[in-house]
């Protein structure tokens, strides 16, 4: 998150540094503001006296000189403490900000070791990485996504999912708490989760049980809701919905960065959408290239290392990929938003009027790709034990 998405390892190193600064700052606050010397001194003396009662006098027997020293230090604190504190706080922030800006500047101005690293042909398949990172994925991306407001975007998109819903590249199920599933108002009738990694799917399934297990058993979810978890590639034909239909909504978050063939993945999921309905939707939340050259320089420079570590290429031109897929398939981009210096992309696609007409008129005579999907679905369903 992963998880503008400033590169995760950059974000984590920055967060690490910021957390260290904050810890120092908090300690300083504790020492100077919450527990200043004149407040702490009597307790410290009492503690010392209890620790070695023979060598040190107890608090009630403390010599008056000590009391005087305590009083004078109190006076000193009030007269010069406030400006000193203000300087310290400003200084800490100033140094921190300066250090951060310098690091960013150095990273942004460094020439990229491979200027063509954004070309898909140069990017090797790293999807297998998720088999190893599944158990720590949520904790790895959780904080940065929270700070960047990604969860809010997930929620907005998930709330738009309706009817027969397929979430591809679902990972650990970071969206599953946001769907509209309630017994009274739920607009999702079936929910299918897909991911290439069985480890990620396992986390997703467990999360489902934790969040919705009780609700489902106690009738708080739609009684006709069908949910399933499928391990497999979204580059291949996928099963129809549990009701035997094509999907009304196909949702993907942070998936185009992780597959070896993002354009093919887009075309494939569009082939699984019910394009005979004008309200069918493809919803995407992705991360990739920025509109700022300096940010792209940082992304390109660290892309290879990041991909090997986290299984995701964060320097792809998502806009170009979605545009190309839309043109090839007859989809229309009805919503496009970018956040975080343009590195976070949100897309909403619907079938164009022409595509709706074409699909509707050919209903009853399914296209080759649909037939493939249906045939393959049997294999898939068998493989995952879904009948
Ligand atoms: C960066 S994670 C995102 C997970 C989740 N969607 C999220 O928003 O947190 C990318 C996911 O895509 C999955 N993935 C990669 N290639 C895939 C493919 N061809 N088909 C299905 N899932 C794939 C990976 O296994 C991984 O779980």
From TrEMBL:
- Domain of life from the UniProt record: Eukaryota
Which is an annotated GO molecular function term of this record?
methyltransferase activity
Positions of region (Disordered): 52-82
List the InterPro entries: Methyltransf_Superfamily, SAM-dependent_MTases_sf
Low complexity bias (residue ranges): 70-82
Q: Which CDD domains match?
A: AdoMet_MTases
- PANTHER family, A to Z: METHYLTRANSFERASE, METHYLTRANSFERASE TYPE 11 DOMAIN-CONTAINING PROTEIN
Q: What is this protein called?
A: S-adenosyl-L-methionine-dependent methyltransferase
- Species of origin reads Recurvomyces mirabilis
């Amino acid at each position: 998150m992963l998880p503008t998405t400033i590169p995760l390892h950059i974000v984590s190193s920055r967060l690490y540094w910021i957390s260290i600064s904050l810890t120092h700052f908090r300690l300083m606050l504790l020492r100077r503001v919450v527990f200043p010397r004149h407040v702490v001194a009597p307790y410290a003396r009492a503690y010392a006296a209890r620790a070695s009662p023979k060598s040190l006098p107890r608090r009630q027997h403390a010599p008056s000189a000590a009391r005087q020293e305590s009083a004078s230090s109190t006076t000193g604190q009030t007269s010069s403490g406030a400006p000193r504190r203000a300087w310290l706080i400003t200084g800490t922030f100033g140094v921190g900000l300066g250090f951060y800006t310098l690091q960013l500047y150095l990273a942004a101005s460094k020439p990229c070791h491979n200027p063509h690293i954004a070309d898909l042909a140069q990017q090797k398949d790293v999807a297998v990485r998720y088999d190893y990172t599944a158990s720590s994925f949520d904790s790895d991306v959780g904080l940065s996504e929270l700070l960047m407001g990604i969860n809010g975007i997930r929620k907005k998109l998930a709330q738009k999912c309706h009817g027969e819903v397929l979430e591809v590249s679902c990972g650990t199920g970071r969206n599953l708490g946001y769907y509209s599933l309630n017994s009274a108002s739920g607009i999702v009738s079936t929910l299918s989760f897909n991911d290439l990694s069985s480890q990620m799917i396992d986390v997703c399934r467990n999360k489902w049980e934790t969040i919705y297990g009780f609700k489902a058993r106690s009738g708080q979810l739609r009684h006709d809701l069908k949910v399933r978890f499928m391990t497999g590639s979204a580059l291949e034909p996928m099963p129809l919905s549990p009701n035997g239909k094509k999907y009304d909504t196909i949702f993907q978050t942070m998936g185009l960065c992780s597959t070896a063939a993002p354009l093919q993945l887009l075309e494939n999921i569009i082939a699984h959408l019910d394009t005979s309905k004008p309200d069918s939707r493809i919803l995407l939340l992705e991360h990739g290239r920025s509109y700022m050259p300096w940010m792209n320089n940082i992304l390109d420079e660290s892309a290879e290392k990041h991909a090997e570590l986290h299984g995701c290429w964060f320097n792809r031109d998502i806009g170009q990929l979605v545009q190309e897929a839309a043109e090839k398939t007859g989809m229309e981009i009805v919503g496009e938003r970018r956040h975080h210096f343009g590195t976070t992309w949100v897309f909403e696609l619907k079938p164009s009027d022409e595509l709706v007409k074409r699909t509707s008129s050919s209903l009853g005579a399914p296209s080759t790709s649909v037939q493939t999907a249906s045939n393959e679905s049997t294999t898939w369903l068998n493989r995952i034990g879904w009948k």
